[in-house]
Every structure is written in structure tokens, then in C-alpha cells.
Amino acid sequence: MKLLEVKIETSYDVEDALSYFAQEDLQALGIEARRRSDFEQAGWLHDSTVVEMDDIKDLPAEVEFIAYFDEERDRDEVVKAFEDKLKELAGYGLRTGEGTISTSYIADQDWNTVWQKYYHVINLSRHLAIVPEWESYKPAFPDQQIITMDPGLAFGTGNHQTTQLAMLGIERAMVKPLSVVDVGTGSGILAIAAHKLGAKSVLGTDISDESMTAAKENAGLNDFADLKLQKTSLLADVEGKFDLIVANILAEILLDLIPQLDSHLNEDGQVIFSGIDYLQLPKIEQALSENGFKIDMKMRAGRWIGLCISRKED
Ligand SMILES: C[S@@+](CC[C@H](N)C(=O)[O-])C[C@H]1O[C@@H](n2cnc3c(N)ncnc32)[C@H](O)[C@@H]1O
């Protein structure tokens, strides 16, 4: 099988909107982004090594956004949809960068090879390491938990800063065994992290079929047959209450989730949000406050915000 690869030279301002559009509206099989800032940060991390930006092939001015589709998809239609979206975003006053779109067909096999090249062990924290299925890793501490992942095509490899913020939030919250719901579980990575950190039960929900398949497979890789999965939107149709609600989704969707939190949260329950662009934080803060919640801790990585949330005291 081949994949249709669509590359867009664009700006940081619209990367999230394009990701959402590609996945939710165009049903892309997968997305990725090559960000100039990631290469720059790689340079800062190695203080004795100078990363020669000029030597990097096809370095984007800001972001090269890449979406993958089934080869059967009508290429012109997909390109037109992205062109229209870029125009719409520019109409909101957002910078869309060069906006050039190019396409090619790549072998599906190459996609997997690409993953294997870029996806390595993430030694995230004292208690968590994320290890691709094809790599081996000796824990830095005997009780460091290993999450084995096959990234597949659902979101959530552990590489994304939003996933990492959410995991750190779960680690902070899990001071005793909690019942957890992971809203928008994608690959299941946060649900598996909650289990490894000692949750007493975990439910993962998502609107996408790919997520249900990927989360089940990844749970299997982690001997976590008890992971419950439900294909549904947010929490409206989810039964029961939880000690911890986790959601790493774009701010626009979190705004719809906020009014559903109270009826699904146990007394003394906690909420972890991630996936919030810092520019969207005021809207989230206001909605949380209006719905009786307060922010106990803010975390930030790059332009992303993670929040630890609980009910306001009476
Ligand atoms: C940013 S990904 C997060 C995946 C994973 N939890 C992680 O942290 O890496 C967001 C996920 O939310 C799902 N999603 C989007 N809208 C949703 C909704 N209304 N209800 C449930 N899930 C949703 C998407 O399908 C996607 O898998």
C-alpha cells in the first residue's frame, strides 16, 4: 500500500488548526510536523555541540506540516481543502507562512521506517519511560515503569510536549490508587501511564475508530487487558464518576468538556488538562472558574500549557 503525503510550508500560528483539520475533517491517517524551533532547541540541548542550521536539509522557515492519506483519496480535492483552510485561517488574521503545498506518494513501509528512525526511548520522569516496541531499555531505577508503545496511526507516541505534560500531571495526582478516565485517549498512552502509576481502574474514550484499535493494541503490549475503552464524544454518554479526569485535547474541545466535568468527578476529584496553546489559556481559565473549578498548578513546555485542576473550595 502507498500513502498520499501532503506537505505544507506554514507557520507556528496555524499548525494546531491544520492538525485538527487534517485529522478531524479530512480523516488523515497520520500527521507530523518538522519545526524549525525543534532543530534550534536540539542545538541548545547540546551545549558543547553547535548545530549548523545551514547543514539541515529542507529546514522549514517555521513549520513543515505533513499529513498522510490513503492513496485512494482524491489528491486535488485534499489539496483544495487545505488551500481553502489556509485562506480561512488567514482571514482570521493568522499568519499562514508560505502556504505552499506539495504532494507525493510514499510506500507505507517508508512510513514505518520513518517512525523507527525518529521514535526512540523517552526517559520522561522518575517513574515513567516510554519505549518503542522495537527498542530495549534498562530502567534507570528498578521501579521506573516502562510504557511500551507502537505508535501506529493514532495520536500519542509520547514525543509530543502535550502528552508529556499530561503524564507529569497524572504522576503528580496519583498519590493513591485512583479511578481514571482518559478523554481522547488516542494511542492509549495516558491511560497506560495511569495504570502503570497505580490507578485502580482506567477508562479510555475517543471519537475515532483508529484510537480504539491502537489503544487496545498498546494496552496488550503493556499487559493491561483491563483497560476499558468507549467510543464516544467527551463525557456526556460516559457513566459513573472518577477520581481523576485527564484530557489532552485542543482548547476548543476542552471548552465543551468543562461543563461536563462536575457530574463525572468524585468528591476531592482532580482534573488534568493538556493541549492548551498558551494563547488560549485565558478562555480556559474563565470557563473553569465559571464552572466551579480552580487551577492548582500550571505547567508549560514550548507554547503548550498543562493544568492541574480541582473544585473550588466552598
Ligand atoms: C491530542 S490527541 C491526544 C492523544 C493522547 N491522549 C495523548 O495525550 O497523546 C487528542 C485525541 O482526542 C480525540 N478527540 C478529539 N475530539 C474528541 C471528542 N470530542 N471526544 C473524545 N475524543 C476526542 C482525538 O481523536 C485524539 O485521539
From TrEMBL:
<feature type="binding site">
    <location>
        <position position="163"/>
    </location>
    <ligand>
        <name>S-adenosyl-L-methionine</name>
    </ligand>
</feature>
<comment type="function">
    <text>Methylates ribosomal protein L11.</text>
</comment>
<keyword id="KW-0808">Transferase</keyword>
<dbReference type="GO" id="GO:0005840">
    <property type="term" value="C:ribosome"/>
</dbReference>
<dbReference type="Pfam" id="PF06325">
    <property type="entry name" value="PrmA"/>
</dbReference>
<feature type="binding site">
    <location>
        <position position="206"/>
    </location>
    <ligand>
        <name>S-adenosyl-L-methionine</name>
    </ligand>
</feature>
<feature type="binding site">
    <location>
        <position position="248"/>
    </location>
    <ligand>
        <name>S-adenosyl-L-methionine</name>
    </ligand>
</feature>
<dbReference type="InterPro" id="IPR050078">
    <property type="entry name" value="Ribosomal_L11_MeTrfase_PrmA"/>
</dbReference>
<keyword id="KW-0489">Methyltransferase</keyword>
<protein>
    <recommendedName>
        <fullName>Ribosomal protein L11 methyltransferase</fullName>
        <ecNumber>2.1.1.-</ecNumber>
    </recommendedName>
</protein>
<feature type="binding site">
    <location>
        <position position="184"/>
    </location>
    <ligand>
        <name>S-adenosyl-L-methionine</name>
    </ligand>
</feature>
<dbReference type="InterPro" id="IPR029063">
    <property type="entry name" value="SAM-dependent_MTases_sf"/>
</dbReference>
<dbReference type="InterPro" id="IPR004498">
    <property type="entry name" value="Ribosomal_PrmA_MeTrfase"/>
</dbReference>
<dbReference type="GO" id="GO:0032259">
    <property type="term" value="P:methylation"/>
</dbReference>
<keyword id="KW-0689">Ribosomal protein</keyword>
<keyword id="KW-0949">S-adenosyl-L-methionine</keyword>
<comment type="similarity">
    <text>Belongs to the methyltransferase superfamily. PrmA family.</text>
</comment>
<dbReference type="GO" id="GO:0016279">
    <property type="term" value="F:protein-lysine N-methyltransferase activity"/>
</dbReference>
<dbReference type="GO" id="GO:0005737">
    <property type="term" value="C:cytoplasm"/>
</dbReference>
<keyword id="KW-0963">Cytoplasm</keyword>
<keyword id="KW-0687">Ribonucleoprotein</keyword>
